[in-house]
Specification:
7-stranded mixed β-sheet; binds glycinamide ribonucleotide; globular; alpha/beta; two-stranded antiparallel ribbon; about 220 residues; 7 helices
């Protein structure tokens, strides 16, 4: 089977992008990253791409006449390189139709909360301020809504009354770096099926707790 080609979209630090690079390097994920696209020319993700010899493009939304024109360009660059799965890794924009139509059920996002709780920006801060006792992270397919697409994997962490946005973010991020490469691995093995909102993971059994509830030290 030819290797799955990934396209990554990131706006900032890029630690989730790095977790995919690391999983490929460790050979726990059989895939290659064909392209990083960033909407922010100062994104630290660019340095990670350079260091790991991943091609990157900075495509700046304000240089386009419309949101559709921006996403048509992004989709075209990904298609040109034969990308089979697009990963949003801290990409801080709602994805537009031209990209969703070009990659149906082939765009994943990682979100730092247990969706449908706390969508949008600052999911960790929302959980702390709400007083939730459990939060976590979600990998989901992307649709036109804000963090509304079918859920692929979630992992939970405790939230303590003394947590701040920073301490909770740190606890959640450790799990983000585990479940995102895991979701991509399942996709690369052809084990993900989507029917409506429901994602089925083939050959998953109730004893497969490592995927659903990885344990981390708080
Ligand atoms: C991550 O915590 C990711 O879950 C979050 O931004 C951070 C990006 O970090 N994404 C969202 O909030 C999307 N709504 P990274 O750049 O180090 O991967």
């Amino acid at each position: 089977m030819p290797k799955l080609k990934l396209g990554v979209l990131a706006s900032g630090r890029g630690s989730n992008f790095q977790s995919i690079i690391d999983a490929i390097d460790r050979k726990t994920l059989k895939a290659e990253i064909a392209l990083l696209i960033t909407d922010n020319p100062d994104a630290a993700a660019i340095q990670r791409a350079t260091k790991h010899h991943v091609e990157y493009l900075a495509i700046i939304p304000k240089e386009f006449n419309s949101r559709d024109a921006f996403y048509t360009k992004v989709a075209g660059e990904l298609q040109k390189r034969g990308v089979g799965l697009v990963l949003l890794a801290g990409f801080m924009r709602i994805v537009g139709r031209p990209l969703i139509d070009a990659f149906p059920h082939r765009i994943m996002n990682i979100h730092p909360a247990l969706l449908p709780a706390f969508p949008g920006l600052h999911g960790q801060k929302q959980a702390v301020e709400y007083g939730a006792k459990i939060s976590g992270c979600t990998v989901h397919f992307v649709d036109e809504g804000m963090d509304t697409g079918p859920v692929i994997i979630q992992a939970a962490v405790p939230v303590y009354h003394f947590d701040t946005e920073e301490t909770l973010s740190e606890r959640i991020l450790k799990l983000e770096h585990r479940i995102y490469p895991e979701a991509v691995r399942l996709f690369s093995e052809g084990r993900i099926e989507v029917e409506g909102r429901i994602v089925r993971i083939k050959e998953q059994s109730p004893s497969d707790q490592s995927v659903v509830n990885p344990r981390v030290r708080a």
